[in-house]
Amino acid sequence: MFCAAWTILVIVFQLVAGKAFADHVLLGYIRVAVEVVALLSWFAGWIAVAANIGIEACSEGSTSCGALKAATVFGAFEWLLFMVTATQATSPVLNSKRRPGTSTT
Which of 84, 76, 8 is nearest to 42 (CA)? Predict the structure, then answer.
């Protein structure tokens, strides 16, 4: 539940911050940090669910085995999507030229 709620907050933050405050340098670093937290949350959730798929969870007569496998695949897919968006959010911040604090004219 945390990953889903955090993902919604990340999407709202990225949409608002990308449109309204695009020229702020510090906000670029905050956007990267938010993306990385979402990336790590989905990775940890994916691994935690995958670790629960074992002999007891997928024994005969168990009805939760299919749901655990589906949650594992969904978590891995979300983690891959956040890998892509985190890379796209990080690239402009790391490749940006530093603006001088005072005018050179």
Answer: 76
* Rounded Cα–Cα distance for residues 65 and 58 (Å): 5
Q: How far apart are CA 38 and CA 81, in angstroms?
A: 11
User: What is the rounded distance in angstroms from the CA atom of residue 16 to the CA atom of residue 40?
Assistant: 22
pLDDT digits (tens, 9 = 90+) for 24-51: 777 778 888 888 888 898 898 888 888 8
CA pseudo-torsion sign 36, 39, 45, 51: negative
What pTM, to 2 d.p., does this model score?
0.70
CB 75 within 8 A of CB 48: no
Spatial distance between the Cα atoms of 84 and 72, rounded to a whole number of angstroms: 19
CA 11 to CA 68: how far, in whole Å?
Answer: 26
Q: What is the token pair recorded at 82?
A: 């956040």
Give the tokens for residue 2: 């945390």
